[in-house]
Amino acid sequence: MRAINPAIAKICVPPDASLKAVLVVLQENPFGICLVTDPSSKVIGTITDGDCRRALLRGTSLALPAHAIMHREVLVDDQTFSLAHIQTLMRTYGVAQV
Fold first, then answer.
1. Closest by alpha carbon to 5, among 90, 97, 77?
2. Which DSSP symbol is given to 71?
3. Using one digit for the tens of pLDDT, what is the confidence trace for 9-18?
4. What is the pLDDT of residues 22-80, one digit of tens each?
5. How far is the C-alpha of 79 from the C-alpha of 86, rounded, in Å?
6. Is the pLDDT assigned to residue 1 strictly greater than 60?
7. CB under 8 Å to 31, separation ≥6 — which residues?
């Protein structure tokens, strides 16, 4: 299992975490995002408060698992990327902030 920064670990949930658990994580962190991670701590998806809100407005249960609403297309900086490379990725994928 890969070591994960304790501050980042606080915003991570497993794919089977409930929507309610995701909402708790979002409420308690300043980043506005929840990272869905596999057992090896690899980021496999992201969930924002907007994703949760849209799911609830569709009538989704609070028991719905995180993997059902997560965004699977995730770009992750492995801390070896140069600033120029990150900026190129941001332009290529239309990312406004990291």
1. 77
2. B
3. 888 999 999 9
4. 999 999 988 888 999 999 888 899 999 999 999 999 999 999 999 999 988 776 666 67
5. 10
6. no
7. 11
What is the C-alpha to C-alpha distance for residues 45 and 36, in angstroms, rounded to an integer?
5
Tokens of 89: 């990725």
- C-alpha span between 53 and 63 (Å, rounded): 14
- Look at residues 61, 60, 7 and name the one whose alpha carbon lies nearest to residue 30: 7
- At a CB cut-off of 8 Å and minimum separation 6, what does 47 contact? 22, 26, 33, 34, 36, 66, 69, 70, 71
Q: Is residue 57 helix, strand or coil?
A: helix
> What SS3 class is residue 15?
coil
Other CB atoms within a 10 A radius of the CB of residue 4 amount to: 16
